[in-house]
Design a protein that fits this description.
There is one protein chain. This protein is mainly beta. The protein has a single domain, classed as Exo-inulinase, domain 1 (Jelly Rolls, Sandwich). The protein is built from one helix and 17 strands. The strands form two sheets. Strands 1, 3, 4, 6, 10, 11, 13, 14, 15 and 17 form a ten-stranded antiparallel beta sheet that branches. It has a seven-stranded antiparallel beta sheet with strand order 2-5-16-7-8-9-12, with no helix packed on it. Strand 10 (152-156) and strand 11 (159-160) form a beta hairpin.
Length: 250
């Protein structure tokens, strides 16, 4: 059977711009905005997100305990629709006291995010499709670049994903080394997750749905997410990001 999604993505790849644009300047958080649960938009509580040595870091050095301070830092320069995003990530340091066990070496890239101004004061995660970033724990397979769906549904192999998080087929990265991940997004229609140049997961049809829909999105169930903001996540384990760049697809 002909895979029309692959043909479409190959066709669109030929029509892309050749210019990468860096979203993070390596100096400061210009162009980015923080939203942490139970804090107002723009309140970078305890300097959770900071720049050090040219990297964008999630830091808990000023925390005593996590206290459900789920956080996201949004690139607010513009919303994106069709694009190729690339960055490197590396876990570092120790898991914060009080953070959930599942958040050990766990973070994420949130794509097609809702506008951060529309997030509720006590909301955990933005409506989005999450490329879940995981580090190995040296006790078995723990792939990275999985798909999680806060406030959304997606289709895999033409059927609605049955679980909130679905694993990719990536290798497990047990060492805290830099890992390159990419996501290629064609609006709500087709999304590829790539790890170290290997496509490890493909899904389609991003739409509002699932079990974690904020109350101000309840009247938007099944609405396609054709574009949105990009954010990076803080869930209780220190992580660093670098080389955050994007290439818009025409």
């Amino acid at each position: 059977m002909i895979n029309y999604f692959i043909i479409l993505s190959l066709f669109l790849d030929f029509s892309q711009s050749n210019d990468w644009v860096y979203l993070f300047n390596g100096k400061d958080l210009e162009g980015w905005q923080v939203k942490i649960k139970n804090h107002e938009l723009g309140d970078n509580y305890n300097n959770t997100f900071k720049v050090s040595n040219g990297y964008l870091k999630v830091s808990y050095e000023n925390y005593q305990s996590f206290d459900e301070k789920f956080g996201h830092i949004f690139y607010i320069g513009k919303e994106f629709k069709n694009y190729h995003l690339s960055l490197d990530y590396k876990f570092s340091g120790n898991h914060l006291v009080g953070a959930p066990d599942w958040s050990i070496k766990n973070s994420g890239i949130m794509i097609h995010c809702q506008d951060p101004k529309s997030m509720l004061f006590s909301q955990d995660f933005p409506v989005s499709a999450e490329m879940q970033l995981l580090g190995g724990l040296s006790d078995g397979e723990r792939p990275t670049a999985n798909i999680c769906t806060p406030g959304t549904d997606v289709d895999i192999n033409g059927e609605k994903a049955k679980y909130h998080c679905i694993n990719s087929r990536s290798t497990t990265f047990n060492e805290d080394d830099w890992v390159n991940v990419e996501v290629i997004v064609y609006s709500d229609s087709l999304i590829h997750h790539i790890v170290e140049k290997d496509t490890v997961l493909t899904y389609t049809n991003i739409r509002v749905g699932g079990d974690e829909i904020p109350k101000n999105y309840l009247n938007r169930v099944e609405e396609p997410l054709k574009s949105g903001f990009i954010s990076l996540q803080s869930e209780g384990h220190p992580i660093e990001f670098r080389e955050i760049r994007i290439k818009e697809l025409k």
